[in-house]
Specification:
This protein has 369 residues and is an alpha/beta fold. It folds into two domains: 5-116 and 350-367, Enolase-like, N-terminal domain (Enolase-like, domain 1, 2-Layer Sandwich), CATH 3.30.390.10; 121-341, Alpha-Beta Barrel (TIM Barrel). Helices cover 32% and strands 21% of the residues. It is built from twelve helices and 13 strands. The strands form three sheets. A seven-stranded parallel beta sheet has the order 5-6-7-8-9-10-11. Strands 3-2-1-13 form a four-stranded antiparallel beta sheet. Helix 5 (142-155) links the parallel strand 5 (134-136) and strand 6. Helix 5 (142-155) packs across helix 6 (170-179) and helix 8 (244-253) packs parallel to helix 9 (269-281). The longest helix is centred in the first third of the chain and has 19 residues, at 97-115. It is globular, with a radius of gyration of 20 Å. Bound molecules: 2-succinylbenzoate (OSB) and magnesium ion (MG). The site of 2-succinylbenzoate has 11 residues, from loops.
Length: 369
């Protein structure tokens, strides 16, 4: 489709409650929404980069710059036919996967709308609803954590992930396990340990966890391969996998036994599908991570999570877990079986609430050929 106009919207959304991880705490979520007009249709995408570089080197600020200077100009006025074509056109930009992924998402929305198909159909997703869980930030105390988890269980979530960091790891996880002996439970360290300090995590091996997510640094895939044999619990990589070749290398090194796929982190939905397929061939289960997305990114996550090798519940929670007012008119709710229904209308299956968009928008810029 010939891309006639691209608009980038910088948005700051107030979170329902502060979200604390090993790399910091936030009470607002910044993101860039990408709007592309082509052949009478409009597609929307979301760039998942955070305001600060705690999770990844990419930030909403760097994404804004890279989009404006290097990714959007060569696309304007061009006929971009499919994801492979898009990836070729942005291959001159090293890294900046989240900036690329936001544009790819908007293009998928356009391509799907043009064909009258849902994104799930276009990606080859099979499940009309997907298993989901909730990612719980670090709380003021272990007892506060147990109470927060209890609240989510009362809402119907059947899988919980808790964030950990040095000093807030074993006791917190033990407290949750003691309170909920049968809960599907996993932990996420967001790379807060080193190969030397990660021995502190060994007691987690007795807590029947689904997985331990990203204990070591992003660029320490090799060290994860040294750490995994010390645990019966599967390690899962998040930050380390920023492209399909990293997934292949991690599996060759046996650095993990589960992979977290975030389309944003890996450069787009097409790259997420490639990693999904690679893991499926090797019997490595994957699941869909989250980045506190608005309804736009959430719709995209639901579509990819409906592919068959997404064997573990995703970090895709109901809208109300994140925002009291979302940027989309559609609100995602939790079904009684701890699933969320994948949108079925053409494209991403969501529409933008323009009032909310203008309320939360800090900056907007439009580009045409
Ligand atoms: O590591 O999975 C992560 C949120 C922002 C950045 C990184 C992560 C997260 C989450 C939240 O865990 C998942 C969600 O969107 O519910
Ligand atoms: Mg993670």
């Amino acid at each position: 489709m010939k891309l006639e106009q691209i608009t980038i919207h910088y948005v700051r959304m107030p979170l329902q409650s502060p979200f604390a991880t090993s790399f910091g705490s936030i009470d607002t979520r910044d993101c860039i929404l990408i709007e592309i007009k082509a052949e009478g249709l409009t597609g929307w995408g979301e760039c998942a980069a955070d305001y600060d570089p705690g999770y990844s080197y990419e930030t909403s600020g760097t994404s804004w710059l890279i989009l404006k200077e290097f990714i959007l100009p060569p696309l304007l006025g061009q006929d971009v036919s499919d994801a492979a074509d898009f990836q070729r056109r942005v291959a001159h930009v090293k890294g900046h996967q989240m900036a690329k992924a936001g544009v790819e998402m908007a293009l998928w929305d356009l391509w799907a709308r043009a064909q009258g198909k849902s994104l799930r159909q276009l990606l080859g997703g099979e499940h009309p609803r997907v298993d989901v869980g909730v990612s719980v930030g670090i709380q003021p105390s272990s007892s506060a954590l147990v109470a927060t988890v209890e609240g989510y269980l009362a809402q119907g979530y059947r899988r919980v992930k808790i964030k950990i960091k040095p000093g807030r790891d074993i006791a917190d996880t033990q407290a949750v396990r003691r309170a909920f002996p049968d809960l599907r439970l996993q932990v996420d360290a967001n790379s807060a340990y080193t190969l030397e300090t990660a021995d502190a995590l060994l007691p987690l091996d007795d807590l029947n966890l689904l997985l331990i997510e990203q204990p070591l640094a992003e660029d320490d895939i090799w060290d994860h391969s040294r750490l995994q044999p010390k645990f019966r619990t599967p390690l899962c990589l998040d930050e380390s996998i920023t492209k399909p070749s990293h997934a292949r290398q991690a599996l060759e090194m046996e650095a993990c036994r589960v992979v977290n796929i975030k389309p944003g982190r890996v450069g787009g939905l097409s790259q997420g599908v490639l990693i999904h397929n690679l893991c499926a061939e090797q019997d490595i289960p994957v699941w869909c991570g989250g980045m506190l997305e608005t309804g736009v990114g959430r719709a995209s996550n639901l579509a990819i999570a409906s592919l068959p090798n997404f064997k573990l519940p995703g970090d895709i929670s109901a809208t109300e877990r994140y925002y009291s007012e979302d940027i989309t008119n559609e609100i995602f709710t939790l079904n009684s079986d701890s699933t969320i229904t994948v949108p079925e209308t053409p494209g991403l299956g969501v529409t933008i609430n323009l009032k909310a968009l203008t309320r939360y928008r800090m900056q907007v810029e439009s580009f045409a050929p």
